[in-house]
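Posting this for the archive.
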Amino acid sequence: MKRLAMRRMIVTAVTLSVACAGLALAQSADEEYLKAMQVSDNCQKVQALDAYITKYAGQGTTNEHWAYAYYCLTPCASKNAAKAAEYGEKALGMAGIDGQTKLGLLATIPGLYYSAGQRDKAEAAARKLIDQGKATSDAKTSAQLQAGGYVMIGQFAEKAGDFGKAAESYITAYGILKDPSISKQLNGLANMLYKSGKFAEAEQVFRQFYAADKGPESAALLGQTLYKQNKTDEALAIFKEGYARKRTASLAQNIAVILNAKVKTNPSLTMETVSANIEAGLLNTAQQKNFFGMAQNLFVGQDKDLAASYAQIEEHNKAIDEFTKTYNAKIEGKSEEDLSEADKRVLKQLEANIEAEKGAIAKIQASQKGVLDKFNALIAQARQKLGK
């Protein structure tokens, strides 16, 4: 009986010893993790987390999954990108990672793999982000995640010189999420192709974009690409097609600019150009004065007599300036008593001449009013059409 009791005591002591050792290990691991997370310098924090993982990996510690996650997520230029991506993948496969951190990992891992020179793994990771988006019930978040994944794939392809795949990925992303930053990526791709002298490739990118989108943004980009290659008629047709779908400031301006050049050799385009400039002015308020001025000059220019009347007004104003200068020279430094009768007669005649010139100007302006009223009516009609 004594021997049996002794054995039980030994077993109990060993069990307690093991339990205490496990508790000590857990406490030590927790303390080291917290200490690592409190390091203010990111790169030193990454080193501390890596030391924690090396020491405690696979031992079932409370914070192992967080150590993997934060090694991946903590920004540090000197950390091992491939290791960070792999640790992120491990964290995703472990229980206890919350939804927000999971999204952060999914968004971070592709770039880390690409930085490590592993494009295939980077694309595969980006597709996991896309798949997560497809599985997300919130429509806005779903679109953002999917578009973000395709943009990453496009960026990886662009950097690798695979411009066709880059364009296809950006276009797919824009089809999911109409975000200006995505069209900016496409524009940047085309500009890069332009600077490299690859005009046909740039045009092809935007033709794909416009064919898939048919929106004002893609119309503007394709039209500008064609315009830069002197394919003016085709560019104008694209701008007009896009403007018919949605009246935007950019498309209105591009249409006006092309028509302003064309009308110089084709007067039959005058009224179309007048309307284009008015609408461009209403939609581009910062340049409204310039566009309205161009429209008015074209409109008035159709009436030769009215166009000549502006020159006549200028001549009358010049005459007024000359009469005024002569008048001032006659009275300069003189009082009423200093003026002779002859001086007074000259001054009276000068006053009469000035009034005559002003009367002539008023008469011309009255004749202009009917035409200008018609022009202002065109502006009023355009305002109503555009809701401006």
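The first helix runs from residue 2 to 37. The radius of gyration is 39 Å.
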